Amino acid sequence: MQKLLILAIVGFAAQLVDGALGMGYGLTSTSLLLLSGIAPAVASASVHIAEVVTTAASGVSHMKFGNVDKELVWKLVIPGSIGAFSGACFLSSIPGEIMKPFVSTFLILLGLYVLLRFLVLNDRKSKVRKATNKFYVPLGFIAGFFDATGGGGWGPIATPSLMAKKELEPRKVIGSVAASEFAVAASSSIGFILVLGWNQVNWLWAGAIMIGGIFAAPFAAWLVKIFPAHLLGIVVSGMLILTNIHTLLKIAGISSDHKKYVYIALVVVWISCITFAIIKGRQLKIQNKQSYMES
């Protein structure tokens, strides 16, 4: 019962992050499940089965608020679903102990990517380059594949790529990625069930994560109003790195004493990044206010 409660809290926290950033549900949930000793395939399967429900609720909400570009959704759904199904079959066919260091490395790299993405606040408008299917098809497939193998990656890969290439409002990008994620989660779940079998999936874990995510959904919008998106991005990226470095340090045979120094160093860097983001955010806020008053 205690473990189910913890998993529900994990799902709640992950959905809060995902609702605020348009990414992070799968990454956060999978990282914490791996940390508790669950095999990568089972962890990813549990998260994606839970995501079938949470992403459906998220997609419907975004559609009601007019945050979805239907044309963009269809361009992402097909390659994303194929990539997710392929990734699920690939991960399920490999022993968990072999995949753990690779999955943890992938999640750490994604954590670093998210950190750099939100640490650098750039308010300059970049040139808009209209993307074609040559961009959408590989983007959808790669994002879907890594989402299934890493337990998360659809949002962190697809969202920033679309913001850089497509002439869309940020809310349209986040809403469209969220809406298309339902198909990706469903395809991953089908792949995991077909290869692993129904009996290998822990439905209690998946249900606990799902319930936590559902309860968090209405609070996510409120959280966006309180905390800046870039600050939440830095917080979640630090958590991803800290939770997954444990697996790599264990495999490398690092002693407990040396592990402590590694964790201390990471926490110091993490706190420094958060502090820098807060200061930079305040400076930009003051600059924008002054520009508005002058105009």
UniProtKB/TrEMBL annotation:
GO terms for cellular component: plasma membrane. It comes from Oikeobacillus pervagus. Keywords: Cell membrane, Membrane, Transmembrane, Transmembrane helix. Signal peptide: none annotated. It is found in: Cell membrane; Membrane. This is Probable membrane transporter protein. It comes from the Bacteria. The chain crosses the membrane at residues 35-60, 72-95, 101-120, 173-197, 203-224, 231-249, 261-279. It is a multi-pass membrane protein. Belongs to the 4-toluene sulfonate uptake permease (TSUP) (TC 2.A.102) family.
